[in-house]
Amino acid sequence: MNDKPRNRDHLPIILDSIADGVFTVDKNWLVTSFNRAAERITGVSREEAIGKPCCEVFRASICETNCALRQTTQSGQPVIDRAIYIINNDGKRIPISISTALLRDEKGSVVGGVETFRDLSVVEELRKELKQRYSFEDIIGKSSGIRRIFEKLPLVAQSDSSVLIEGESGTGKELLARAIHNLSHRSEKQLVTVNCGALPDTLLESELFGYRAGAFTDAKRDKPGRFALAEGGTIFLDEIGDLSPATQVKLLRVLQDGYYEPLGGVEPKKADVRIITATNRHLSELVKEGKFRLDLYYRINIVQIEMPPLRERREDIPLLIDHFINKFNRLRNKFITGVSPDVLALLMRHDFPGNVRELENIIEHAFVLCNEGYIGLNHLPSEIRQRAESSKPVSALKSLEDLEAEFIGASLKRNHWNRLETARELGIHKTTLFRKIKRLGIALPKEDGRYKTKQ
Amino acid sequence: MIIAVTIWNNRISPVFDVARDLLMVDLDDGGDTSRRILSLAGMSPQLKIESLKKSNVEMVLCGAISESFLRLLTTNGIRVEPWISGDIEEVIQALLQNRLSDPCYCMPGCNRFRRKGGRHRGSKRHRGK
Fold first, then answer.
1. How many alpha carbons fall within 13 Å on the CB side of residue B88?
2. CB distance from A57 to chain B under 8 Å?
3. What is the pLDDT along chain B (129 residues), one digit of tens a residue?
4. Which chain A residues contact residue B44 at CB under 8 A?
5. Are residues A264 and A379 in the same domain?
6. What is the ipTM score, two decimals?
7. B82: which chain A residues are within 8 Å (Cβ-Cβ)?
8. Nearest Cβ partner for B20 among A64, A87, A93
9. Which CATH class is domain B2-116?
């Protein structure tokens, strides 16, 4: 008989002992109980909370428009683990997840509601920490290709050797050049970028090496070139494959002897500049075609780094999306939470011919149309939506097996079909890999990659 | 002077960051001369600031506000009186009578800020002008 009242006496002690915040409200939305965790998370004491409207105590992002407790009282259905934020008494946005339920009396009549909430700040912090592990300077990624670049980047940066970066347009070659410069002993001096494809040949030469007064009709005074500007620092020559044979010779001289001659000058100038080059074409093929000097190719290709296209590192797409959302939230003063699951699914299967730059543009486009909350399909460029619809008309999501086959196939291709290397990269035993290749029906080329490892 | 008060169900809205409506009150010679509602629904923070500036708002009275939004308002020269709760009419009267720092207008848990007299406030003008 006396058990019930005794249990009721224990209730505050039980509520105070749990780590989740709990509060209850009456039918007028006034707070009737407030546990210790709720005090800690909101920064509001129990004495101040009780008897006050719950929205003024809880101060959640949904109070005004989409109150979860109100929804529960109207529908009778509980809300479970909805992610929102509250503003604590320090003005900090605290990410939390909430769940709600109705409170009934002994006769079953609704007398109020209960809301439990969990502080997700630690989860958010961990997520940020994880993100730090997956970024190097401004390059973001956790895929094996990017991880390999992260591993060798500090060594490459300190070496002072010439670096050739190969990769499709939009893969982040300039970011990589900047990272190498920032990590090198030359970081105090300038990084000067020159796009060799953007300037006509005659202009490029004077742009790179400068000119002396009187070198040509309009040369009234000396003009320092980009090499002079980069003295002590780094020069980044993008689209190096577009250099004319004449400029190639001059560049070769800088690399071989460390000297260059400004246009119209008679005395060679010493250059203390590190050269990083980049191209979106296969330079070795241009050499074979006789369009690029072999000796220059060897000089600039002391260290070669290949930036993988985004379609070969799809696992980095969610990280990159997060990165760009944070970036544009800061730039545009917006509070976009993320992308909806259907947008993520669409972006995960998009081929990104424009690589990371294309993804960045898609997010930037969505920021114009979306003000807060999640980026939905309607915020994406119509071209992306149409392309995705035409490529996969019925089933949007691939099966787990399809994804596994695609992932293993990409890894095999990266490792030139060498099964042992692939198994090592995937962190599985080679027999497991053989079994998976057979079960998933992955077609292998006739060429045997056993003796051909990647460069 | 034009002041903007976040309004929801005739009370100060709980969170400025997501408030949809602002009651614009023109205070001339200490009196409340004209009123209108400014809708902020669906606007980005930047647009909200631009709307406030376009309406010549000099002071905002609101409930809870995130640090980042508060900074955005004050750096744009808008004075902010945050952490206020209560009925809109009572709050406006309290402002006119210089009683806004009374504990009854403080949001629960926010007494300490308001007693300090302006940790969160923007600069420029004094209250009750």
1. 21
2. yes
3. 899 999 999 999 999 999 999 999 998 766 777 889 999 987 888 889 999 999 999 999 999 999 888 988 999 999 999 999 999 999 999 998 889 889 899 999 876 555 444 444 443 333 333
4. 332-334, 371-372
5. no
6. 0.85
7. 91
8. A64
9. alpha beta
The C-alpha atoms of residue A155 and residue A141 are separated, in whole angstroms, by 19
Token reading at B116: 């300090």
A62 to chain B, closest Cα gap in Å: 8
Chain B contacts of A43, Cβ < 8 Å?
109
Domain that residue A91 falls in: 3-120
Between chains, do A58 and B14 touch, taking CB under 8 Å as contact?
yes
Q: Give pLDDT tens digits for A385-443.
A: 877 666 554 444 557 778 888 888 888 887 888 888 888 888 888 889 988 888 888 88
Considering chain A, what is the average pLDDT of its residues?
86
* A121, A43 Cβ separation under 8 angstroms: no
CA distances from A215 to A200, A228, A244, A270, A418 (A): 18, 17, 21, 20, 57
Q: Which of B43, B66, B108 sits opposite A48 (nearest CB)?
A: B108
Q: A323: domain CATH number?
A: 1.10.8.60
pTM metric for this prediction = 0.57
Domain count for chain A:
4
Question: Same domain, yes or no, for A147 and A289?
Answer: yes
DSSP readout, B47-110? HHHHHHHHTTEEEEE-SB--HHHHHHHHHTT-EEE-SB-SBHHHHHHHHHTT-TTSGGGBPTT-
Domain boundary among A371, A391, A411: A391
| Residue range A188-197, pLDDT digits in tens | 899 999 998 8
User: Looking at the predicted structure, is the pLDDT value of residue A31 above 90?
Assistant: yes
Contacts of B109 in chain A (CB under 8 A): 42-45, 48-49, 57, 89
Q: Does B11 touch chain A (CB under 8 A)?
A: yes
Tell me the count of A-B CB pairs closer than 8 A. Answer: 84
Do A92 and B18 count as a contact with CB atoms less than 8 A apart?
A: no
Query: Are the beta carbons of B2 and B24 closer than 8 angstroms?
Result: yes
CB contact under 8 A, B64 and A87: yes
Distance, in Å, from the CA atom of A439 to the CA atom of A428, rounded to the nearest integer, reads: 15
Quote the CA–CA distance of A243 and A327 in Å, as a whole number: 35
Q: Which amino acid is at A49?
A: A
